[in-house]
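Input record, target 12 of the design panel.
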């Protein structure tokens, strides 16, 4: 399981770097963490139970991103919000859905100009 996770992260990093374009002029303050739950539900093919849990996680993530953007140490808070979101999604989604969600989140963060790597 650990090996699969590491492989997934490596593949994601590779694919993001291959298809990456120049970073947009966005900053973390420009994205409040809003996620279209209907489109996400359709994309991940969620069942009814998962849909409710994912909707709650998305709302929580949006609240955390808003708090992070108002914080003095916003980079760290944004990083914590993203990793917290991924942890909650991992508990809710199956392996295939989670893999798709991680790719989608990575692309979204990159498009918004948000770098969650520790510096």
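The sequence produced for target 12 reads:
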């Amino acid at each position: 399981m650990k090996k699969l996770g590491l492989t997934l992260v490596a593949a994601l990093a590779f694919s993001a770097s291959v298809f990456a374009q120049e970073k947009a002029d966005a900053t973390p303050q420009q994205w409040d963490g809003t996620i279209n739950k209907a489109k996400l539900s359709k994309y991940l093919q969620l069942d009814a139970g998962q849909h409710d849990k994912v909707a709650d996680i998305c709302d929580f993530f949006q609240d955390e991103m808003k708090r992070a953007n108002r914080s003095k140490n916003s980079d760290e808070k944004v990083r914590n919000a993203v990793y917290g979101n991924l942890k909650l999604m991992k508990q809710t989604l199956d392996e295939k859905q989670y893999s798709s969600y991680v790719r989608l989140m990575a692309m979204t963060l990159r498009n918004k100009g948000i770098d969650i790597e520790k510096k």
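The helical segments are 2-19, 37-44, 48-70, 74-92, 95-111.
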